[in-house]
Amino acid sequence: MILDLFAGPGGWSHALTVLGVRDVGLEWDPWACKTRAGAGQLTIRTDVAMYPTWPWVGRTYGLIASPPCQAWSMAGKRLGLLDQPLVHQAVTDLAQGRDTRERLLASCQDTRSLLAAEPMRYLHALNTVGEPDWVAMEEVPDVLPLWKQYAAILRRWGFSVWTGILNAADYGVPQTRRRAILLASRVRTAEPPAPTHAQAAEPDTLFGPGRAQWVSMATALGWGATDRPVPTVCAGGGPGGGPEPFPSGSRKTLTDARDRGTWKPQNPSLASRSSRASAGTKRDGNRSLRPTDPPRWSWSLRSNNQANATIRSLSEPAGTLFFGHRANECVWVPEPANPGGADTGQLVVPESIRITAQEAGLLQTFPADYPWAGNKGQRFSQIGNAVPPRLAAHLLAPHLELPLDPNDFTLAA
C-alpha cells in the first residue's frame, strides 16, 4: 500500500486517484477527514505522532508526507525556525531507533515543530524490512535543510534522493507556489519531473515540444480574458464567514448570467452586498449599466491584507494561497480596465470581493465539485494547507511508472 502521513483533505490522494491508484491517509483534523470521506478516500483519523508503525511494516511500498507547515511558514509566527536544532536532533535520534521526542518537545517553542520529524519514525521502522520502495515529501521552502538531512540518511539506507525547490506554476498549477520537495527511490534514479510550463511560452525544438505558458487564473476559473466577469461573492466576516448577503435567488441569477456570458457588469459593486443586485437596470456614476456596455473594471487577486501582499491580475497565476489565521482575507480587487479613459473618474469604485472556497480550490487544481467539509474558515484552512493535486501527480507518476495526462486535471469550473 501507499501510506500518506498528514493526509489533509486529499491533495496527494486525489492525484493518486487520477493516476488510478489509492493510498491510506492518516489525518487528525476532523473536517479534513470529512472532506476525504466525501471524496471516497481511505482514511484513519489519528494523531500521526501517536499511531504505531508496526501495522505498516511488510506492506508499504510508497510513503508520502506533508507535515503541517504552520510552525515554519512565512504566513505564521515561524517559531519552528527557532526549533530547527531540536527537529534535526529528533530526526537523527529516530533514524537510529532512539525515541527522544518527549524530551525534545518540552524544549520546543511551537508544539507542532517536531511533527516534521515524524516521517523518520515511520521510515526507520519500514527500513528494517527494506521498505518503502519510494518516498515523496513536501513542505514550505524553509524546511529544505531538514529534507537534506533526511536525504543523507536515506542515501545511507540505499536510496537515490533528490531535494530542491519546485514552483507549482511550472507544472500547470495556476499558482506560483514554491515548495521544498524530497523524492527518494530504491529502484530508480530520483530526479524532479520535467517542467511542462514556463513564465513565457517556449517554441518547439528538435528535442521536443516547448513548454506552455503558465496557466492564468482566468483560464483555471473559466473566466474569459475579454469578459472580465465579476467574481462570485463570498461575503461575511470572521473565519467562519457570515450570512448570505443577497436576497433569495439573487446570487444564482448573477452566477447564471456570468456563466452564460450574457451580462458583463462594468461595476462589480452591484454584485457585492446590496440587495439591489436583483434589480434590472443599475446606475454607475452618471451612466446607466447595460449588458452591451464595455467592461470598465478588471480584477486582480490580493493574497492577504498585509502591506506587502502579492497582487496578481487574472491573466497571471495566483500567488501562494495561504489562509489559517488570515482566512477569508484573500480578495479580488478591482482595477480600471481603461486607466487612461476620459470618464473612468466618474465611475463608482467597486468593493473588493472575498475569494470563495470553490475558486481557491480550483486555483489549487482540485475539481470544482470537490466535497469540502466544514464552514468557510475550515474549508479555507484545508485548501491552503493542501498539496496541489496536479503538482503531486507530476511527482508521483514516475515512481508508479504510470503516464500522466494533463487533461485529467480539468481546471475550469
Automatic annotation (TrEMBL):
Top EC group: transferase
EC number(s) per entry: 2.1.1.37
Keywords from the UniProt entry: Methyltransferase, Restriction system, S-adenosyl-L-methionine, Transferase
Matches recorded under InterPro entries: C5-Methyltransferase, C5_MeTfrase, SAM-dependent_MTases_sf
GO molecular function: DNA (cytosine-5-)-methyltransferase activity; DNA binding
Family that this chain belongs to: Belongs to the class I-like SAM-binding methyltransferase superfamily. C5-methyltransferase family.
Descriptive protein name: DNA (cytosine-5-)-methyltransferase
